[in-house]
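Why does residue order matter? Because the sequence determines the fold. Keep that principle in mind as you read this record.
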Amino acid sequence: MSSSLSEAPDGTHDAPAGTLVDLERARLARPLGRVAPAPSVRVLIADGQALVRAGFRVFLEDASLIRVVGEAATGDEALELARRMRPQVALVDANLPGVDCVEVTRRLLAETGAAVLLLTASERDERIFAALRAGASGLLLKDTEPAELVGAIETLARGDASLSPGLTRRVIAELVSRPQLDRPIDGLLDELTRREREVMGLVALGLSNDEIAERIVVTRATAKTHVSRAMTKLRARDRAQLVVFAYETGLVLPRADAAALATSGAPR
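Structure:
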């Protein structure tokens, strides 16, 4: 009986009956075509309270696509760890000890490119608006549901911004209603088309590209293009800064001002 193997059309050989096959070798020789798992999002947690950090780590590491690469108790530690560990997303407490959250946000963006998700215990925290202007791409309350936090992290890792619509409207509307001494982007607003202004206003209200597309009856790709062009013309780093600009320039009115206009009958 011949022990030779017959050659198959794909160049491999069929084993004769009764021959044990090395399954691992066969697997390597014939790729199964499975898609490789997506790489984990590298996350840094920066919070002054050890129990809070531990809690974040527990439920974040339960998410299959997130890996916590470091924990920092102060702003200085956050910057040092970020330089070494190169996280994609940094969770930064608005009340972070040491170097404050605003400076940490600015330096994380400039030195490591990490997207900053600012976590605040109060929507009235004075540092929130400054952190958004410094480049924070996300804003959530610390009592946010874990699933929403995980979703925000994944959104930031893709290069998008994640702003809790209700929180963002309340915080920014209150803060930007205060006088601003220098608003260098006022002139740039004139470069926007009517449609781009409309889309920018919808972004400021917390609408996603899909929701904007539905509102103005265009495709998602077209809505995304309008958002991108508005960001380019206003030199906005990301969607979060576009929201800030919309309020700063008066394109979107703080809630109190809008209510006053509606009551007085003034045109919007």
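Confidence is low (pLDDT under 50) at residues 1-31, 255-268.
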